[in-house]
Amino acid sequence: MAPSGQSLAPGNYTGATRYPFQASNQPGLSIDGDGRGCNTLTGSFQILQASFDNVGNVLAFDATFVQYCEGGTAALRGEIRYNASVVINVTAPTKLTAIEGQNLNFNVTTTDSQTTHVTMTATGVPSGAAYLDNGNNSGTFNWTPGATQAGTYLLTFTGSDGLGNTGGAYTQITVIPAPPPNDDFNNAIHVSAIPYSISYDATNATVAPDDPFCNGANQTLWFAYTPTTNIRLEANTFGSNYDTTLSVYTGTRGALTQIACNDDSNGTVQSRVRFDATAGTTYYFMVSSLYPVSPADLTFNLLEAPPPFSFSPTLSQFGSVKPSNGTATISGTVTCDQAAYVYISGELKQMHAGSPVDGSFFTSVACNGTTPWSVTVQTQTSLFHGRSVLLYTGGKAIVSGTAYAFDPDSGDYLQRNFVVTITLRGAN
After folding, report:
1. Average pLDDT in the 242-269 region?
2. Is the pTM above the cut of 0.90?
3. SS3 313
4. Among 262, 255, 303, which residue's Cα sits nearest to residue 286?
């Protein structure tokens, strides 16, 4: 809607507010649909073509618009055409991201259906930026944002053929602060010696389109290390103040092979990986946030890792059996070099005059150092030569078992098997 007393005609209308509640000297704008609209809005629009019959019915219409709802910075933008005969069409990028201190350059082009020369202009050009009409129905925008120019900018590009025909396009430029120097794989920080530790602000890190995936990819940073001898390595992000992921790769950009990937470790939301590294091979470490976060204060550590997780079960030489009901109990210890759950299962077998007595057992052990375990053997009632119940008694018996656990760092499955002859002794 044009301001009061004016006819809607080709041209730019800035400072628009919500129609039909705008002041008499303001243009009105309201784009809504599907039950959604704005209570308060601001914006602008450009009428490219508008013609009406003698009673005010629209015959042809073409307009571009930008609308902001409820004071927000996100914009609704588009073009509305009805029976329009578009003479001038302007083409420009819709959205771009620029980095402080890095050059941004792009072209804006126009076509004129009447093959007339089009003059190009731009409004909303930021401080320090330049827009040049190339004189050939195109223009060039050039800008190197300064260190304090982070923010969002909306540019309007207009083409005019001097015959009353105009066309327009909008470009939104979002300027972000410069990311850390190792934001990209090609600029990975090469660690020269271990142990190594570095702390710095990763808030402004970005993501490359070809960054690999390890429980997501956000605010990625890269490190690299080439060991001179075969060595077991550990990398971690302990000391960081945000939820990280950490992964390791070999190879080249676009052809990386993942060696390890971890999200949470050691009861924290930070990450740790351990692996066996080969002398002369370059390993690339990608640190990512699980989700975008600010502030993101990273601590990255690289050091020689302890030996891989191991555990060892033992079985006591003597078990117990209750003479009254034949219930057997066996016990032992399990030793772990890291805290982990160990699961022990198996069979206890004893022979009675050529007939076997079989039972099974299962237990889990929260292992930390050397931890004792004990379990009651489960049996099914059976007959001995068809007359009496077959039960465990004092004497020799064979235990066949399996103990398994998962490496707390890698999640690898580890298994230990054992076969031991023990002696069952009577117990009250």
Report:
1. 94
2. no
3. strand
4. 262
Cα separation, 59 vs 51, in Å, equals 5
Q: What's the pLDDT tens digit per position in 155-181?
A: 999 999 988 888 889 999 999 888 999
Domain that holds residue 318: 311-426
Establish if 1 belongs to a structural domain.
Answer: no
What tokens appear for 35 in the block? Answer: 């039950």
Give me the sign of the Cα torsion angle 247, 369, 367, 349. positive
Nearest Cα to Cα of residue 341 among 402, 418, 401, 406: 406
Q: Please indicate, yes or no, if residue 288 is contained in any of the structural domains.
A: yes
187: three-class secondary structure by DSSP: helix
Q: Note whether 298 and 200 are within 8 A (CB).
A: yes
Confidence of residue 389 (pLDDT cuts 50, 70, 90): low
The CATH number of the domain holding residue 226 is: 2.60.120.380
Any domain includes 67: yes
Residues 388 and 369 in one domain: yes
Residue 253 lies in a domain: yes
Query: Residues 214, 286: contact at Cβ < 8 Å?
Result: yes
